[in-house]
Batch of 2 targets.
Target 1
Amino acid sequence: MTNTVSIPTFANSSAQPTAPLFSRASGLRLVEQIVQALASRIDDRLLRSGTRLPSIRQFADQHGVSRFTVVEAYDRLVASGHLESRRGSGFYVRERAPLINAALSKPEETAGNQIDVVWLARNMFRQLPPQKMPGSGLLPNELLDAELVANALRSISRQAPNALLQYGGPQGFLPLRQQLQLKLAELEISATPEQILTTSGVTQALDLVARHFLQPGDTVFVDDPAWFLMFGSFAMLGARVIGIPRTQDGPDVTKLAELAAQHRPKLFVTNSVLHNPTSGSLSSPKAFQILKIAEQYGFYIVEDDIYCDMHPGSAVQPATRIAALDQLQRVIYLGGFSKTLAANLRVGFIAASTELARALADRKILSSLTCSEVGERVVYKVLSEGHYRKHIERLRGKLERARDRTLRQLDRIGLDTADSAPVGMFVWTDTRRDANRLTELAMAEGWLLAPGSLFSPHQLPSSRMRFNVAALSDPAFWRFFEQALAGA
Amino acid sequence: MTNTVSIPTFANSSAQPTAPLFSRASGLRLVEQIVQALASRIDDRLLRSGTRLPSIRQFADQHGVSRFTVVEAYDRLVASGHLESRRGSGFYVRERAPLINAALSKPEETAGNQIDVVWLARNMFRQLPPQKMPGSGLLPNELLDAELVANALRSISRQAPNALLQYGGPQGFLPLRQQLQLKLAELEISATPEQILTTSGVTQALDLVARHFLQPGDTVFVDDPAWFLMFGSFAMLGARVIGIPRTQDGPDVTKLAELAAQHRPKLFVTNSVLHNPTSGSLSSPKAFQILKIAEQYGFYIVEDDIYCDMHPGSAVQPATRIAALDQLQRVIYLGGFSKTLAANLRVGFIAASTELARALADRKILSSLTCSEVGERVVYKVLSEGHYRKHIERLRGKLERARDRTLRQLDRIGLDTADSAPVGMFVWTDTRRDANRLTELAMAEGWLLAPGSLFSPHQLPSSRMRFNVAALSDPAFWRFFEQALAGA
């Protein structure tokens, strides 16, 4: 049986703040308002597909509007594909979600040996509730600040509507790049706005850099373990990916020197601070050694610092940026706001030598023209008005508490947490089981995990698992996981 | 001498609608409001660099606020890099624009033989007023509707703030893809939402398709003339670009068959409707012949339909989409909203076979994860609420009038317009002079033109010039151009 919802009750009890259905004071026609209110609730899945709407008479009575108004509104929602009319039975929210599920259901059903980078990448985007995704790489909404972003967006729509009509600058919104200059200066990295270009997240930044440096057959070094999406991205370019083992305070530099001599890589991509997935950070002596090896063998270092703002300061965990030593000669520094502000704004950036920044900007023009300045203006506003700093402080506090809770739970179920980093959003746990197998068991119960094999440049079997400490608040997960460990 | 502005006068007389400086009723502190109001005016260049601000006392008196408030606001604007304090002289808007100018001034100074794709691409992004850019590929703001976009943005910030925090779906916002399904159906192209993926403009769409099909050394066919940015984009991939001469009703099919037999291309990229730069459109018999040749030689057709919505209907100019014949078997259809709604939203899309759409979505994930859903939601709202259709009707009317005016002016100065297409935003004029030389003369006077050589796949010299009919409203341009023609 399908449910009939009473729209006003629904709107009032919704978890997400929703505007009232309509207002007599608005400039818009009543029917327009009703159409918009219902359409947006359907688009945002507040009204789910299959839900039966009140009858025309019920709706008219409940809201004190004429039946003609309701008829027109429902008709328009049928035309726009939001509702369907079932003969003799009334109006229903049209089935829309199955389209996504159809496109994404296959990977979910794959057996363990098919768990791969694309599998996880696709599943990360499934419409699972965040608390069902302990393997996610993003923070759940509770740690972020939707109002901060929404307010900035509103203020942009009021203050600079014309700016959205034309293209932004090819290197990105200049005031944002000036803010980034200040931000980098705090990390002792000196970069003029000409040395900075915005990108559609760190992913595009990496893609631009990789396309600039790598020819098919070239070698690129990455951390081992490392962020899995890169492997696919480099493979797409025909590059050979080799992993440099990660130790607690950074890459294994002996191994790095050895492999560099042997393979003559073009690039070494590394997270200096809050490495994904271990949450370890780089020590100063290692930073210096890496730079010397890079100079000796002539490769560039791509320092992906996307977790930068989650780091609570060197008193808790030393954290060195190689770019601070090198000042963007041999280091290409990447950053962004997907993790700490809002992933959907797609704002990342590259800081590099002036010459390289210019070459990368040309490449950006040729592959996607510009980024949307909407996101860039939002980030600029939030940074320049000081809101970002306060938000980050709150976020760090919440993250610390979530991390403590997670480590306690892991201890409780008998997993060793002694080698865990003290900070960051990830815990890299040794499950002492086949993590792919655990992932399959979890998927069958509707939990998305991130098994260690994915973070291995060659997808080698692993007993490690990356947990997102902020996505583990559901006690049901721990009950499931304890049982799964016992069974696996 | 620098000017001192009276802020309130300025705010009231501004061409762009601006919010009042502050409101006692606002929840924000007065100083915050003043900081924000001034900062956004500076960011948007409403207050230009070098402008002197009222003294602290003047400002306090004019606005009835305390001097402490003004001191704090000015101080914070100095800290944020918006103002600078000059000893003994007061506060000035800081020099910011020169950074952009420095980055972009070099191409402007290049001699004629260095006019190339990157030159024009960079110059398109210069902060010239639109009426100074008859060579621009975008419509000026008067033909677009900033309020439409701003309203949609506001409504998204109110109704779906949480949606912005996480990633959108890898294929794009589903309700938008459902709207695109309806839009394509009107063109007789049948595509399910699974067959559609959003991209960061048509540029990223082309890049994804090209990276999927092309290996270094492969051949790609383009129209000759064609949109210049493509040449750079394909060259970046190491592909060989060959032009198919464009006749009034589409590509020269005899030549196409001949060259296909000879070069065995992987792709043929073409504008069927309102071809850039000629504004010609494809006839049905030619569409059929192109498809047969593609089948015979096994290449794919990339149908870039970015100008789709400017076309006034087949009664004025026949316009056939190859995808309507082929139903996305051998045709990859591209579209977007940069030209007709707002370039800065960066919303384009690909429609292709289900299998290909899936492969391209994986490639999109690996190269930039997702697009910003902000833009996608704006486009969705504007489409689904019926505003887009009305906007397009107004736009077509304005375009028609601008086109008539332009053709009259060209006639008047003695250029032949007999072979001009009757519709579209571009006129492809034969100047009977070296168009590169005219472009240099124009650049010296501050006008950006688009010479024919840029649209030639091999940048061959040309006497043709692409004019944007909507960017020619300044009589000063026609005075300049008439003189330039006489002199060149």
Target 2
Amino acid sequence: MIKCNIPKPTVKRLFLYIRCLRRVDVSIHPTISSKELADRLSLNANQVRKDFSYFGKFGKRGVGYRVTKLRKYLEKIAGITTTWNLAIVGMGNLGKAIFHYKGLEKSSFKIVAAFDKDHRKIGKKIGKGFEIMDIKDFSSVARKQKIDIVLLSVPASAAQEVTDIVVKSKIKGILNFSTIHVKTPEDISVEDADFSIFLRALIFSIMYQEQCL
Amino acid sequence: MIKCNIPKPTVKRLFLYIRCLRRVDVSIHPTISSKELADRLSLNANQVRKDFSYFGKFGKRGVGYRVTKLRKYLEKIAGITTTWNLAIVGMGNLGKAIFHYKGLEKSSFKIVAAFDKDHRKIGKKIGKGFEIMDIKDFSSVARKQKIDIVLLSVPASAAQEVTDIVVKSKIKGILNFSTIHVKTPEDISVEDADFSIFLRALIFSIMYQEQCL
């Protein structure tokens, strides 16, 4: 049984655990302890066990976890075994960059539509067989293509207006690339994608790696 | 005194602490306890105290922290009080999107140059007074403009080749937007900017918020 109100840092670590487990050579290491997993991720074992307690009961004391079983279990929890249909709204530079981004796991994510409101862009081909659609047609396309998630890549000035349009359809969440906070109904999740987080982490490692070398 | 080998999750939380402290109305709450800070961020107070122990000794037992003093101290640790000169290398859709990104704190980050190897792009104006430069001129521009950080937004196929060029100059770090891992000399930090992290966090909140509402 998975607990409600899982802390956000635990959620972020869930994906670190999965990535780490995928890299384990199970022919050499069929099992892994929370201590070993913690060491590989520079965490402490208590933190790992605490995180796992949010996800349910598994693993035997003293034996460790079966790597493959643990990985599959965590992947299921993380929703990686499901395919999510994505639509990009806002086909400026950022929208195009996202469309061509190669880093999405093909099994989990599928871009099914791309929208804009600019008539110079609407109808234009992008990628194989893809055409930029009019945001006015969002609701009918969302129904037909079963859009789950909107990647919102419009300028800040248009972000709320576009959000108000897309939440009228049965979408489940918005990944917000604009730099303002957008308001949605309670049942539609929003996550802000702010790349300066990576930049700040880099700076930190520059500042403190230097003196630690 | 700041400790070496600070765990990555602690570094990420450092920025959460700063963001949270910035939002505190100090006229109402001049001080904050680790418990209050933890509650605001869905962490536990022990975690907060443990994180802070990496950053040095501060705060009085039972009294809590002075919000403004704590914020300034953490900002200094995080390098936010310094200005970092950035160069974008790779002026495709992603490079352009980064160039026009409004979310960078103006006080901490300054884009000082943009490069490409495509002769159709070199010399083109981008933004006010900005011109895309030839990657061949990187080292002389890096010296003149004091480039600290390269935002690497080239395709995966060119990422290592371009990395090998830029690390010959005295840069400090690379924020890698390409989807492959790049190798650098030990004294040059690399951080991978992988936006699917945000997407996965969104999916998690979709899956578990639903049943928790």
